[in-house]
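ERR on first pass: missing label on line 2. Operator R.T. fixed the label and resubmitted. Corrected input:
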Amino acid sequence: MGILEGKRILVTGVLTQNSIAFHVAKIAQEEGAQILLTAYPRRTLTERIAKRLPSGPDASLPVIELDVTNATQLAELPDRIREHVSGLDGVVHAIGAAPQTALGGNFLNASWEDVGSAIHASTYSLKSLAVSCLPLMKDGGGSIVGLDFDASQAWPLYDWMGVAKAGLESCARYLAKYVGPQGVRVNLVAAGPLDTPAAQGIPGFHDVADVWSERAPLGWKTSDPVPAAKACVALLSDWFPATTGEIVHVDGGVNVIGA
Amino acid sequence: MAEITDDVRENVQKIVYDVLEVGPEDLTETTLFVDEIGADSLAIIEILTTIEDSLGIAIDQAEAKRMVNLATIFEVLAEA
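pass 2 clean. output:
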């Protein structure tokens, strides 16, 4: 029996087969979970990639269109989910976006409009998604897991996305405080740099990846999203029943090594 | 796939037209998807993924960076 047997998990951000989100959905299915996906901005791409999950090309995996900055879609989400399942046991927030002007060394000149857009999509959306899904986690609580990149330090060229991730870390702690009484846990997985399409849009990615290959005591493969995905699945399971507001580093150990 | 047959060529062109929502009149083999058509990087990933499904082949996702127009897609496919 898998560690997610009988659990109903909503996974956002499945856009490519190399992504952490895809591997969370894959491992969660292997561990017995029933998976629902949200899609944005290319629903047809998510539907195509969903057919590569263990459930296979013939499974009618629910794929719900969801732009987490769209208040109407957020309000409709619980009903869209109820068309498929009566409740949720877990939610995976794998969402982050920033205009190119907010990254890549333009820190001092990026406009509030662009920075605000990055924070809306990457930080505030954790709260928005959680609030939309809370009514579905009334019975027996649940687990919300988000994807982080260590925001305790400044990184080359990551700029306002780094600020958005720092906000995400704080947002997860406050969410943990507010939804804890309902039995809902909120945790983040801070993965090392992964060569996903999301990362390819981040200038300076390879400079940061070099730091990992030099410093990680356990070593680090930028091509392997499985360790981060496994941590997400563990946090979605019943095996962290008293852990919330936490950041689990899945980075080969880099965050504890000074130099 | 050493040889790109006319069937494959037509199939790939149709995929690109569908994903980018353009017609043959908008796109030559050298028209740049991003700079000239305004495509985003996920559209290129969708083209790559759809070609994989349609032709039953696997293409390394890193190749998406090379796939800037139809001509370079055919180059990638010839090596796949």
